[in-house]
Structures are given as structure tokens and as C-alpha cells.
Amino acid sequence: MRLSGPHLRSPRLWAAVGLVLLLVLAGASVLNHASHRAEAASSGPPRTTVEVSPSHCGRGWDDPVPGLQVFDLHNTFDGAAEAYLEDPGSGAVYGEVEGIGPGTTRPLTVRLGKGAYAFKCVPEDADAVTGPTVRISRGSSGPAAAPVTVHDLIPPAIAYQKWVAGGLDEVVRLTGTLRDAIDRGDLAGARGAWLPAHLEYERLGAAYDAFGAADGRINGTDAGLPGGVHDPSFAGFHRIEYGLWHGRTARTLRGPADALLKAVTGLRDDWAQVRMDPAQLGLRAHEILENTVQFELTGRTDYGSGSNLATARANLDGTRAVLSRLRPLLATRYDSLPALDRAMDRARKVLDGFRTGQGWSPLERLGLSQREKTNAVLGDLVERLSSVATLCDPRRTA
């Protein structure tokens, strides 16, 4: 898995879609602004302009009706604001729009039925305000889920951080084995030791800049380097991979191997002092495999070992490690969790099919139908995991 800092999205998932956010919870897809307009045009749901402000939150919704509808949320506040449509009794959220700029309007498309509803307005740098309760006497509403707070995410984040610490111990051990083989000039042994060390690092899911600048020293590529693979700044696992599979001598690889071992040891030693942002945990469940699809299934990180599919399998393990910590939160919020589990198992089965007694099949040896199936299965899983990121995106409740 390869990350590039300038291309990372902000810690809030929805900033990536131009600050226009729609939450359709419990396994539904996140739709973009254009699709909202298209849906409204094709089915003609009623539209209601609703004010978003500290003083008149929810004003304008005077004629509640059941069924699919569009709320045009107009921010009259002098700063950016968020708006949630929720059950005022349970706090379950039916939909949200974030980043509504001053004086601007953003649409929210939801399906409403029998029940009580209220808009919660969350102005930037101000207290949240709940508008008047509106009741609908008939029909079936769309899905809703209780909001997740940062406090909810602290225990799973701590558990995940401890798991990563144990994995870093193993990365250091395996990287030491790789370095030792290079030191004694055993390049065949080094090629055998490279993959276990690299996969152990990949399982830790260094998505969303979890390891900071250390990730570039450990798992960087030659992307953007003036000298490419010959640039002095090209370092880490992929620098050694290139040398081992392109006929470089042990003497030329001793320096990079020493630097790699120093980098992973430093990361391990520093990790105990790191306080991972709990708000990023749900995002990491999505980002790990999104990066896999972008970098591993395209072969962009292959420097000779042909191990992209093995890396994808390690990334799947890393995703499962995140999901296992989030499961207590998802169990009561995500109705499609069993379907997600099946999709995870399906991806595991597909990837495991590329491992033989001789090792992992290189990506370029896959037939067209195998490539298409792999891309489809992993792509579907990434879409499902976007709902996990949405559900676990912490929300202000006050």
C-alpha cells in the first residue's frame, strides 16, 4: 500500500466531496450533489427550504409529508454549519449535510415515514441547536443510526493502537532477518526474507498518514523523485526490493537495509508515545483497501518482486483488524454488517486463490477475467467500507 501525503483527504471524510455531504446510513451509498438533483428531477419529490442557524434552526418545514423528499438547507449564519435530520427522542440520524457555507444552500434527500423528526443545527464555533419537532403519521422512513461520538471511539482506538504495537515488534524482527541476509551476502535468502517483512508492515494499515513521515522512509516509492529508482532519497522496502530483483550487489544494499531497520525500530520505539486520533479509525477501515485498489491492483508499487496480490491480502488482514475493533459500534448501527462480512470473506477467497506452492502469482500473469473479478470484488468491498467510515465519523451532539 502506498500513500502520498498531498493526495490524502482531510480527516473528515466528507471534505473529499467538496464539503457537500449526504449521509444515508446503515449500508446505503453516499450520493454526490449531482445525483441529488438528478433524483429530484426524475421522481419529483417535494422540496422544502429549511433554515440552518442558531436562532431559527429548522424553520420552514411547516407541511410535513411522508415519502422521498428534498430539503434545501439554507445557512443564514455568518459561519459554516452542519445540519442533521434526527429522531429527537433517540438521536438517530437520518441524514446530514456538513460544511454549509454562510448564505449558501445545500440539498438533503431523505425518505421519511411515521415518526418524529427534528433538524439539529451545528454552527461552527457555537453550540448545537435543535429545531422544532415535526411529526409524520404514516409511511415508512429510510434507515437511521445513532451518532458515534469521539468518546465512543476511544476504546477501539486504544485497542487498535496496542495491536499495531505488537505488529511493529514483528516488523522489526523480520526486517532484522532481511538485513542479516544482505549483510552476509545471501541475496537468495534476502529475497526470501523480504516479503514476510514487507507484508507484516502492510498488515498494520498505515493509511491516512498513521505513521507520519516514517512511512516514507519505510515504504516510500520513487514517485516524484528526480532520479526515480536511482534517486538517493529512494529508500525503504521498495528500494531494497528493486535492488534484490534487478541484480544489485549485496554491498550496494547494505546501506539501505541498515537504514530500513533503523526506521522501523524508530517507529516501534516512538509508537508508544503516539496518541492516534480516534476519529480516524473508521476512515482507516475504508482507506486501507481504497489504497489497495489504487496502488496494488494497478501494479504501481511493484519493483520486481511481483507481490502486489500478496500485499493486497495483507491489506485485507489490516482492514479486518480495524473492523474487529469497531464491531461493537457497528453491530447496533449497521444493518448490512453481515453482508460486509460476506464481502470480506469473498475478497479473502479470491486473493487466496492466487497463492500457490511456488508463491504468489504476479499481477501481470492474471487473465482478463481474473483481473476483472478481482477488481470487482475489491471495488465492491471498498464501497461497503465507505458506509463504515460514514457511520464512524464522529458527530457533535452539543
Structural features, described:
- By secondary structure, this protein is of the alpha+beta class.
- The protein has 2 domains: 132 residues, Immunoglobulin-like, CATH 2.60.40; 242 residues, Up-down Bundle (A middle domain of Talin 1), CATH 1.20.1420.
- The protein has 10 helices and 10 strands.
- Strands 3, 4, 6, 7 and 8 form a 5-stranded antiparallel β-sheet that branches. The chain has a 3-stranded mixed β-sheet with strand order 1-2-5, covered by helices on one side.
- Helix 2 runs antiparallel to helix 6, helix 3 runs parallel beside helix 8 and helix 7 packs antiparallel against helix 10.
Brief descriptors of the model:
single chain, Immunoglobulin-like, A middle domain of Talin 1, 2 domains, three-stranded mixed sheet, 10 helices
Question: What number of domains?
Answer: 2
Fraction of residues in H or I helices: 40-55%
Number of helices: 10
Superfamily (CATH H level) name of the largest domain: M75 peptidase, HXXE motif
Note the run of SSEs as H and E. Answer: HEEEEEEEEHHHHHHHHEEH
> Approximately how much beta-strand content do the residues carry?
5-15%
Ordered list of secondary-structure elements with their pairings:
Layout: H1 33-43, E1 47-52, E2 67-75, E3 81-86, E4 93-100, E5 105-112, E6 115-123, E7 129-130, E8 134-136, H2 150-183, H3 187-202, H4 214-219, H5 237-244, H6 250-271, H7 281-296, H8 308-330, H9 337-352, E9 355-356, E10 359-360, H10 368-391
Parallel strand pairs: 1-2
Antiparallel strand pairs: 2-5, 3-4, 3-6, 6-7, 6-8, 9-10
Helix pairs in contact: 2-3, 2-6, 2-8, 3-5, 3-8, 5-6, 7-8, 7-10, 8-9, 9-10
